[in-house]
């Protein structure tokens, strides 16, 4: 089975590899840089889900693939809860069916959330706060905010596993 991951980010490719290990017979997983069709910093559940779906469709259309996978991180407010949350959504498609799943959500500290709410992107803010470069391609905000208990790979892999449901089980 050939799977296209709609991103050049190695974390997203590793998340797909981890999620399908042992469930699919000899998957070939390729990273394909595609457009998400949403803003660089998606805001809200709707825009983040749309980005994941667009990436999945665009990845599938980029070549001779059986599945396209789109992973999109965003930020969102949660009704009844103060603050801004890191969210992550995943879409998987074979061109007909679409599976959706999400990873865990992390409440952003006010010092980070306020900057993102003011228009900055989470990745560069995390780089600045941690004094590192490329946090989004390493532990991600998830790793930093959980002190490494859950890194970005793990968080995204959970979302991929959830979105793969229609393609790995007869329950759908």
Q: What does this 3D model show about the protein?
A:
This protein has 172 residues and is of the alpha/beta class. It has one domain (2-105, 150-168): Maf protein (Alpha-Beta Complex). Helix content is 39%, strand content 23%. It is built from 7 helices and 6 strands. Strands 1, 2, 3, 4, 5 and 6 form a 6-stranded mixed beta sheet that branches. Helix 1 (10-20) links the parallel strand 1 and strand 2. The radius of gyration is 15 Å and the shape is globular.
Secondary structure tally, helices? 7
- Strand pairing plus helix content: what structural class? alpha/beta
Order of helices and strands: EHEHEEEEHHHHH
Strand-residue fraction?
Answer: 15-25%
Specify the CATH architecture.
Answer: Alpha-Beta Complex
Domains, number = 1
* Number of strand segments: 6
Q: Terminal Cα separation, in Å?
A: 20 Å
Low-confidence stretches: none
> What share of residues is helical?
25-40%
CATH class: Alpha Beta
CATH topology (level 3) name: Maf protein
Rounded Rg: 15 Å
Outline the biggest β-sheet: 6 strands, mixed
Shape: globular
Task: Output mean pLDDT.
Answer: 95
